[in-house]
């Protein structure tokens, strides 16, 4: 059995897979050569000239949903798929309580060639909104607010009395982009806080883009104000509240809020964002917008995000009823449904419900998808600015390859919608 697994792991290196000779001597020779090659490849980054790491499949204590052969089919197919496309990042796919693939490819830092591991945290970009929304719903569960309250009930200086907390959650507020205000008016040597963002809106008043509740328009500003709302209602800074109320209770040790207002905000093991430049990559530095929390700014890895997925699936942190509310369609004033809930993008795949959130920010491209009815999860985190939409298409088609085999044409993501909802 071990020999067969080694053959499968190295099936994409032809001269190794052909080295196996009949008989015990040949098998022992193959095993020695294989172990030597494993050590050499791990140290040299020989595979596609990139670092590569993997974890063994993790199976929960229950009736196995997949055989070993099926698990290694997923591992081999997805590994080759991502290597062929020179993917730099981490991936995790799971279904029916079994982690089928959990691997990392490439570099956390192209300057030092520090390799990625499964534990290395990425900037989640707009996936952070799923945590911000959960924190607001948690405060509602604690009786400290209602999502139908006017925001001004909790942030007295908030200049739009007609906007409710729910409108911030489901992107129907009509607020203009705070990033424009920061770029135009912020002149301090330090990044602005969420409180500073509020002062900018009061100092330089901006009209709403539309009457609140009548349209959907993706809004980073709404979630930045939700970050401030969490601070005002809880009496704690956003990073501390998220750590003590969500990350620590759920045992997510590699998840935290990147805090530029802390004297020592940088985590040494974090991933840096890069953009392609010629044949290489250049690092993207922090910008003033990184000082604002809620719409982005949370770092995590695929293992902690799978813990997040299992917590949602198991009704932890929030009740199953509240999670269902978060995954329900928003309805505008004319009762027209919108494919967004409370912190979650909503779609269907193979005629079944999916909740997800993409992210895009300063060299990071991310995706977190939950195929609710199939108890399946797809997590993809990249620290380069390459579009990951085609990879998501391919990975979900591999994950559901048996179901798709019966279709004449596999379903695909709409890149325009994906980019629009990815956030900044």
Strand-helix topology:
Blueprint: H1 2-9, H2 14-17, H3 24-44, E1 52-54, H4 68-84, E2 89-95, E3 98-105, E4 107-109, E5 114-115, E6 122-123, H5 128-141, H6 165-169, H7 178-185, H8 194-203, H9 220-234, H10 238-247, E7 256-257, E8 274-277, E9 280-283, E10 298-300, H11 302-313, H12 320-326, E11 330-331, E12 337-338, E13 345-349, E14 352-361, E15 364-371, E16 376-382, H13 389-399, H14 401-404, H15 415-422
Antiparallel strand pairs: 1-3, 2-3, 2-16, 4-5, 6-10, 7-10, 8-9, 11-12, 13-14, 14-15, 15-16
Helix pairs in contact: 4-13, 5-9, 8-9
* DSSP, total strands: 16
Which strand order spans the largest sheet, edge to edge or round the barrel?
1-3-2-16-15-14-13
Average of per-residue pLDDT values: 85
Query: Could you tell me how far the N terminus lies from the C terminus, measured between alpha carbons in angstroms?
Result: 48 Å
- The secondary-structure class comes to alpha+beta
Strand residue percentage? 15-25%
CATH class of the largest domain: Alpha Beta
- Contiguous uncertain segments of 5+ residues: 1-62, 418-424
Tell me the helix content.
25-40%
CATH architecture of the largest domain: 3-Layer(aba) Sandwich
Structural shape: globular
CATH H-level superfamily of the largest domain: DD-peptidase/beta-lactamase superfamily
**Count of domain modules:** 2
Which assembly state applies to the chains in this document? single chain
Alpha-carbon Rg, integer: 23 Å
Q: Major β-sheet, in short? A: 7 strands, antiparallel
